[in-house]
Prior knowledge:
Layout: H1 14-23, E1 79-82, H2 86-98, E2 104-107, H3 115-118, H4 124-127, E3 136-139, H5 143-146, E4 148-149, E5 170-171, H6 175-190, E6 195-199, H7 217-231, E7 234-236, H8 238-242, H9 246-249, H10 259-273
Parallel strand pairs: 1-2, 1-3, 3-6, 6-7
Antiparallel strand pairs: 4-5
Amino acid sequence: MSPFPNRTRPTMKTRPLLLLAIAAGVILPRVASADQPAPPRDPNVPLAPGEVPDAKSAPAKKAPIDSYAPVVDKPGLPRVLLMGDSVSIAYSPIVRRELTGVANVHRVAANCGATKTALGGYGLVRWIKDGDKWDVIVFNHGLHDASYRFADGMDKDKDSNYASPARGCKPYVSIEEYEKNLHEIIGILRKTGAELLFATTTPIPNSLAEKYVENSELPYNEVARRVMQAEGVEVVDLWGVIKPDQERLQGPRNVHFRDEGSEVLGKAVAEAIKPLLPKP
């Protein structure tokens, strides 16, 4: 028996008529739209400068992560500062947990966005305060540098369409500017006297948010590795940590990660920090 009792199933006599109707355009087979609406943003992910909030946000599925919670330093422990994008925000609590009793782990209370953001009025001039002492600073920029933007620097137009190559958009920060900006950022961070650790940009998949183009992080990571080698800055290769198990760890068609992915990333960062901490 058909699970749809009121629906007539095509018979051998009616099938040729059905095929003729489809061929004539009277009945169109259902196909996926080539211009699907942009997916709603995850309300738990803080926006970076230039990102446009949805007109109507998707409901939050869980309480915001506690990455920005103020830290009361335990005397005698070294101080670590984490800086980075939304991927970094998600793994910050794991780093803090893994270094419990080992270091006081702080986090910039912002989505640090692109290198252009870090060097602007929203960035390092606010994140690095005079007189603060840091033993290790972990920093990451690349995901937002590689993302496509409209000419006004925004990631969506007035109709909520994402910036993309198909819409004539360009990466927010060019490869040449990215290289120059990284050198400048390192110069600023070095003035703190901290040991520096750079985290590579995690894999960009074929994303529903069209501003992210698959594999566009690769040239940025290549430049970042070259800059860090020239500057003598240690690197934790988060791209390499994720890539072998990307399908399991990363959300489908999303630059962000499942909880398991953030766990893997946080543990990798924590392990990379330990050798840079001052010896007791």
